[in-house]
Amino acid sequence: MIHTLLTARLKDEPVRLTFASDGASGLACATTLLPDLVLLDVDMPGMDGFEVCRRLKADQQTKDIPIIFLTGASETDEKIKGLDLGATDYITKPFDIAELRARVRATLRTSYLLHLLSKKAMIDGLTGLWNRSYFDQRLTAELSLARRSNKPLSCIMCDIDHFKQVNDRYGHPGGDQVLRDVAHLLVEGCRVEDVICRYGGEEFAIIGPNTPSNGAAGLAERLRAGIAQSEFHHQGTAIRVTCSFGIADVESGQQILQCADEALYRAKHCGRNRVEVQNAQLASSKPAA
Ligand code: GH3
Ligand code: MG
Ligand code: MG
């Protein structure tokens, strides 16, 4: 009955509605569909709305889905309890049509902005690549996925050679332009499923899911050659740079980043503009010229 009412009241809103008649099936539905919003009745047969809310908020996958409680008008305790459990808002029954629509719209708007904000916090402002905090969190997830599915995984560290000299010669804006252009070449050269990050100042890190270290070495070699052959432009001046690369694979476990970094250090030590693979019998590549 309440479902028919909601369907009628929200029919002009740009939303698609899915219904569940009790707590357990509502929870299952939310976990499968990952909806943008949950309208949750406190009174339900079996598991009540509070318990459903508790479980949704305890699950990493569903914890950010906004919840609007449906409560009786005089049930102040219920409203407080719902909000304390993490609900975004409540609507009292019987619904006022305009209020129901406005609260649904406002909740969706806020949740969209929060989503944008959390995404922005993971993006590097200069290059538009993922930032280090995203990288660290994604590497942990990709490592465990690779182990569970017994798939290869590589990590590539890339550092621009003598970048300090670029800043000294062309100024900080010139250096910034090179960082943006190198980032662009990395994105162009990688697969869509690769995770490309600005790890720090002039250092980039790439996670290659499903990529063994020899595959990653091939990729790094192509990226290295592409960057070395490119001419970057800043205020009418052509700037050229080279990069050094270090690679490690899933065999290094939690130390993968440290191992890639050690390989990078070796690439620097061996003359820069080259690719080194950690613990590999693979011949490391030499500069093109
Ligand atoms: P190496 O070949 O050993 O890597 O030498 P390098 O000069 O690249 O390394 P170093 O660590 O000495 O210098 C890195 C420079 O990167 C110094 C720093 O000012 C510059 N840098 C870091 N972040 C930025 C940035 O956002 N913009 C610009 N323009 N420069 C940056
Ligand atoms: Mg450098
Ligand atoms: Mg560096």
Notes on the structure:
- The protein has 289 residues and is of the alpha/beta class.
- The chain folds into 2 domains: 118 residues, 3-Layer(aba) Sandwich (Rossmann fold); 151 residues, 2-Layer Sandwich (Alpha-Beta Plaits).
- The protein is built from 9 helices and 10 strands.
- A 5-stranded mixed sheet has the order 5-6-4-9-10, with helices on both faces. The protein has a 3-stranded parallel sheet with strand order 1-2-3, sandwiched between helices. Strands 7-8 form a two-stranded antiparallel ribbon.
- Helix 2 runs parallel beside helix 3 and helix 7 packs across helix 8.
- The chain is elongated.
- It starts with a helix and ends in a 12-residue tail after the last strand.
- The C terminus is likely disordered.
- One magnesium ion binds next to loops.
